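Intended use. Records like the one below are meant for learning the mapping from a protein sequence to its folded structure. Do not use them to infer anything beyond what is encoded.
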Amino acid sequence: MRPDVLMLSAAHPPDDVRIVRREGAALAAAGWRVTHLCPARADMPAACAGVAIQGFARRPGWWARLRHIPQLARLARASGARVIHAHEPDSWAAALLARPARVVLDVHEHYPSRLDARLPRALRPIARAALSAACRAMARRADAVVVAKDGLQADALPVRNYAPDAGVAPRIHTPGPLHLLHIGAISRARGWPQLLAALALARDARLTIAGRFTDNTQDDFLADAGARGLLPRITLAGWLAPDALARLAATADINLILFQPGEENHRLALPHKLADGMLAGLPTIAPAFAEEVARMLRGAEAGLLVDVADPRAIADAIEQLRDPALRARSGTNARRAALQDFSWEGEAEKLRGLYRNLLETTP
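Structure written out for the chain above:
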């Protein structure tokens, strides 16, 4: 049976949080048949959160992704989906080639700046301009555009990366050694060198990383931690399912977001880890320059905004949050804001409203 909605991914994992566990699940719960077409994995489930999973073979690398666009378009067209919801620029192009289905483009991040690190500084403005023009051209051809965070496209529908309540009781903050939590992808650019330097200054604090290293630097991290004598205070929990992550977060004291300056996507970030930590009742230490993160935390009085390039500033914030009364107050504010002001259900209803309009006029 053909799906109503095909979530089309050129690179995302089969059970991606935004694509499957948030957006796909919201549409499936409304009664539409949803399939996620994505790169195949050996451990890929047949379904997740009410969304059917279908894999395709893909070679690694950017050039392989570009060459794969026509094949991805053929697979999308063959699905017979009434709406194709695409999640990266190359899958956007494939979706537009797969007409006559309706097409929704999902903008997760600031794509024009993604090539900055791969190019000489002199070429970056040219590459950004070219990618911006390509993205705008594809957006004009789509039936709708949704964005994961503010600041990406002014005329798009915001479906922000908020999180549903997992039903786990929030953290009760008490005196004692601090438990720091870093959720999701971690890398040098996401601040692990600064984190280790701050942890060395933070007395008896311990750290759990619930995620994976995305830049092949885990060995470097462990070597640095070993040289600093920090390994007994660090746990690498790996990537966790949402329910397990919620239970872990409820045992922590402080949520960490340490995106380093210099990347446009870090300035515009709205990571899942922020909503996950807020729902768990944790105060968050985060970059002062990350505009939407700072706006949420400042408005809710739910954490501390610091210069995350400075390990001493991170360590000072950790010491400030050693006060259980301050953690409890900030954590209560965080959870209240996550449930009331930054609720996933409100974002999901906007998405369902868009799909009601699209599917009512699609044969």
